[in-house]
Amino acid sequence: MAKKYYMWVIGCQMNKADANKVAARLEKLGYEPTLDEREANVVLLNTCVVRQSAEDKAIGRISSLKSLKKRRPDVTLAVMGCLVGRRPSPRLRERFPHVDVFMPPADPEPLVEYLQSRGIEGRPAEGGEPWEQSLRYESLKKGASPVTAYLSIVYGCSHACTYCIIPYRRGPERSRPMEEILNEARGLVAQGVREITLLGQIVDRYGVDLKRKGTNAPSLANLLRKLHDIEGLWRIRFLTSHPSYLDDEILDAVADLPKVCEHIEVPVQAGDDTVLERMRRGYTADEYRTLVRKIRGKIAGASIATDVIVGFPGETKEQFENTYRLLEELRLDVAHLARYSPRPGTVAARYMEDDVPDEEKWRRFRTLEALQERIVGEINERLLGKEVEVLVEGRRKGRWMGRTRNFKLVFFSDERDWHGRLATVRVTWAGPWSLIGEVTADRHA
Predict the structure, then answer these.
(1) 147-261 carries CATH number 3.30.750.210
(2) DSSP state, 175?
């Protein structure tokens, strides 16, 4: 009987890509995926600590596995991700003695070495391609092969915003070789993926660290053009951008390349210059406004997503109102909102008082949430009666579901099998968070 592995993943898109890399390595050792941790020989938890709520959830999940380890001492428990950081601390091992392996983000080798050193790997798999990412676990979980996938191109971050724990847990910025990325993309397409999202904490800085080393370094724009040539890949996205590094070369590539979607994720984090300076973001609110105008001028029909943190240390009501006015003025398609929570070791946690009461953070959060709901509702209403291209990812609550090129979520009903296909859909209903429509054409008929 084949040995089995189970995965629990929380946090960002990078964690999903990292987990798929572990899956590929385990499958090469002969392990099969299972959705039941009770029958698994290896249980992997991939963790996040970007916010306190995510860290609490991860710690709770790790603690819950004590009983499993007690019942089955032979099961291998592995913890990966930002809770571990680049090097697991002795304190972490002391706190969770039932965990066998601690793994840094994006590094499956400690688990592989542990299994091999103890002779508890499964029967080695024969044949097949040595994918860098395996989507078998995701396919089992979703009941169908994934149509979209994430691909990390830059690990770590060297920008060090004062609130962010990522540089401390994922290390400095490290760009991957272009050919390695292209091979991974080809492997994803061979498994049925039609849309790939390139990932980096600051994805626009792909290649910058290689250039400092004196190599003939690639850029994100170069990479987009190379990926564009891969047969069978229909769409390309990238995130997350930074206002200081999203340059004309990248925007021109988005405008020029048909496969690259007209959707830009570029966080502002705050609309007040004093708060931005305390965050160490490196730009002003007016510079962000100028960037948004440039994106809209260069890329026809572009949608723009942003991130906003409310309740940063020292943020006054007037400073919050500046953020409100910025969002009201720019009318962006998506605003990912978060309440500030101090992260141990960051500049903000060490030197700035978390002085905005939690109830006030919630009030500011809900105020922006209501504003954004109104804005996006009005943006989406303009799509009523219009046709949009939808890449169908699967079914949800009896309807087919997919996204437009500018990341609008669309549902439609149809008796045919639309999984993994491009549909032309006429929008018949529009809300702030999704659209409903009817199929008018099959782009691949």
Answers:
(1) yes
(2) E
For residue 440, what are its two tokens? Answer: 């008018």
Strand partners, 303: 263
In sequence order, the 6+-apart residues with CB closer than 8 A to the CB of 368 are: 308, 310, 323, 324, 327, 335, 337
**Residue 18 contacts residue 105 (beta carbons within 8 Å):** yes
pLDDT tens-digit series, residues 235-247: 999 999 999 999 9
Tell me the pLDDT tens digit for each residue of 43-102: 999 999 988 899 999 999 999 999 999 999 999 999 999 999 988 889 999 999 999 999
* Topology of the domain covering 4-117: Rossmann fold (3.40.50)
- What ranges in 148-264 are assigned the alpha helix state H? 166-170, 178-190, 208-212, 220-227, 248-256
Task: Judge if pTM exceeds 0.85.
Answer: yes
What confidence tens digit (pLDDT) does each residue in 343-387 have? Answer: 999 999 999 999 999 999 999 999 999 999 999 999 999 999 999
**Torsion from C-alpha of 313, 314, 317, 322, nearest 10 degrees:** -80
Count the helix, strand and coil residues of the chain and give each as a percent rounded to the nearest 5.
40, 20, 40
Q: Are 52 and 31 in contact (CB under 8 A)?
A: no
- Report how far residue 262's alpha carbon sits from residue 407's, in angstroms, rounded to the nearest whole number: 9
pLDDT tier, 295 (very low <50, low <70, confident <90, very high otherwise): very high
CA 189 from chain center: how many Å?
19
pLDDT given at position 212: 78
| CATH classification (class only), 265-381 | alpha beta
- The fold of the 387-442 domain, in CATH, is OB fold (Dihydrolipoamide Acetyltransferase, E2P) (2.40.50)
d(CA 376, CA 59): 36
Sign of the Cα torsion 177, 183, 188, 192 reads positive
> What's the pLDDT tens digit per position in 18-29?
999 999 999 999
CA distance 209 to 101: 30
> Whole-angstrom Cα distance, residue 380 to residue 40?
45
Region for 282 from its dihedrals, namely left if φ exceeds 0, alpha if ψ lies in -120 to 50, beta otherwise: left
Which DSSP category does 35 fall into?
S
